[in-house]
Amino acid sequence: PLSLLAKHARVEVMALMAYAEDVAGGLMNSNYIRLRANMMVEEAIRYIRTQTLSNVETIYYTYVIDTAQKLVGVVSLRELFGARDGQKISELMTTGDDLIAIPDNMDQEEIGRVFSRFEQVVLPVVDEEFRMKGIITIDDIIKAVEEETTEDMQKIAAVESLDAPYLEVGFFEMTRKRLGWLVILFIGQMLTATAMTHFEAAIAHTVALVTFIPLIISSGGNSGAQASTLVIRALALGEVKNSDSLRVFLRELGSGLFMGFILGIFGFMRIYFWPHANEVYGVNFASISLIVGCSIICIVMWGTLVGSMLPFLLKKLRFDPATASTPFVATICDVTGIIIYFSIAHALL
Question: Which of 254, 278, 288, 319 is deepest in the core (most CB within 10 A)?
Answer without folding.
Answer: 288
